[in-house]
Structures are given as structure tokens and as C-alpha cells.
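Entry 14. Structure prediction run on the chain below.
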Amino acid sequence: MKTQKCSKEYDFGYKGGIAVEKELTAVIKEYRDERIEMGLEDNPRQIILLAGIRFSEEVKYRFSEPCELLGLHHFYGGTLDDFFFLESKQWDEEALLKYGSPSPMPLDMMNEERFSHHQWIYYNGKHYDVECPTGVENFFDLPFMKEEIDYLFNRNRCDDSWLFFPDL
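Output returned:
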């Protein structure tokens, strides 16, 4: 698939503030809908799991303003390879605070868990992804991260019966 700029022209008035955030939201929704219509994925969660990095890179390309791509590896103080291959990781509290995302629990508890990787767009103090095209101020409020934390820290109380397959 050839990469291209957005097919729609977005005119939200002046360039800055809420108008540009609306443009970013529109770009995310348009590309999300394109992928689903093309049959590449069925829903936003599948896009995150199967094409999350590609999705965020394409949105960054299509968006008219400079923005950052962030991933969990930015908050471990390492590279993407470090995220996948290092057994021991330490959350970087300074980086979390720099991006307006204080840890929802003590960092020593967070350091003990192995999170799934996620990459998203950071623009003007907000974190955006395919499931949250309007953005949130704290990346731990992205739906993917909320569910990841809920699973990792509440799994002892949840019903894991879905993991077992019935006899065929």
C-alpha cells in the first residue's frame, strides 16, 4: 500500500490549539476507517495488536503538524530492542512526569511486571491512539494501557477460564 497524505482537506480555522487537535483526531479516525474498510483489521484493538507501530507512524506522516511517537520503551529509558529483550526494566519516573503521566501505582510494583508494548502519538500535551482519537493527558488513561494494568495487577482475582479451550 502506497503511503499518501490525507485525502480530505481539514479546515478548522486557525492553526493551533483545539483546531489542530481536531485535525489530528480526524486523521486518526480516517486512517482507522481506511484500514477497517480495506479488511486489514476488524476493529481498533486489532489495529493496535497487529499494526500499532505502523498505524502511529502513518498518522504522524499524514498529520500537518510535528508530533512525537512514544512507546513504552521511552519510559524504560531504553530502545525498542531493549523493551523486547531485556528481562529487567526500570520505569523512568522523570520521563513519566515529563509527558504528564505519573505512575498509577508505586514504581517498584510496576517494575515487577512485563507490559505489552504500545506506541502512540503525543501532541500538545496529549496522548492519542486508534482507540482514543480525542487524546488523554496521561497515557495510562489510554484504553489499551488501562486494560493492561487491570490485567497485570488484578489477574489473581479474575476468571482465566477463557484461556482453556474446550475439547474438540
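Residues 20 and 65 are 8 Å apart (CA to CA).
Filed with the rest of this week's runs.
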